[in-house]
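So, read this over?
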Amino acid sequence: MAVKARAYKKKNRLLTLLSVCLAAAGVGLTGFALYKLEMLPFSLTAVEQTLVVNQDLFVEQQEVFVNLKNQLHIPEASIHSTKPEKSTAFQNIMEGDFIGTLQIPALDQSFPILHGTSDEHLKAGVGHYAQSVMPGEEDNCVLSGHRDTVFSDLGDLIAGDLLIIEMADRLFTYQISGTRIVDKEDRTVIVPTDHAVLTLTTCYPFAFIGNAPQRYVVTADLVDNE
C-alpha cells in the first residue's frame, strides 16, 4: 500500500507541474497577442505617415516643375505635343503680296503666285488660298487660277508630271498623284492633310460660258526641296 501511495503522489506532482506549464504558456501567448494588438495602431500610423510624406514630396515636385516652366516660359502646348510648328517665315505676308512662281515643266509654263484669291489677284497670276499653308509646309497648300488664263491647259497634266514652286532661295518639287472633278461647293479641296500636298484648282468645264458648276482639281505630293 505504501508503494501505491508514493506512486499516486508522484503522479499528482507531474500533473500539477504540467498544469502550471500549460497555464504559463497560455499567459505568454495571451500577452503576446495583446502586445501585437497594442502595437497595431502604431504600425498603421507609421504607414499613414509614410503616405503623407510621399504625397508632400509629390506636391513639392509639382511646384518645382511649375516654377521651372514659368521661368523658362515654356508654352503649355509644347509640353503635351511634339508636333512641329508651322513656319513663321511668311507670318506678316499681306493680301496681294508676291510669294513665288509656279513652274509647270510639262506645259513649259511659269506663273507668279500672289497671296490671296480675289478677282484682282487671279487676274495677275495664280492665287494662294490664304487659309492654307505656304508651299513646302506639312499640310495642304492650295493654289487657284482662272480656266481661261493661267490654268487653261491644266487638263493636259497627268499623274507623274512635276510642279515646281520657287520661293526666294527655296525650291519645292511636287509630283502629280491624280486629278478629279468636283462640284463647285465641294470643300474637300481645302481639307488639311498629314503630309505636304499641293492642290491646284480651277473652274470646270474649261469651255463653259458663265459661272462654271464644277471644279477641276490637281493633287501633287512633295518629293523634293532645295
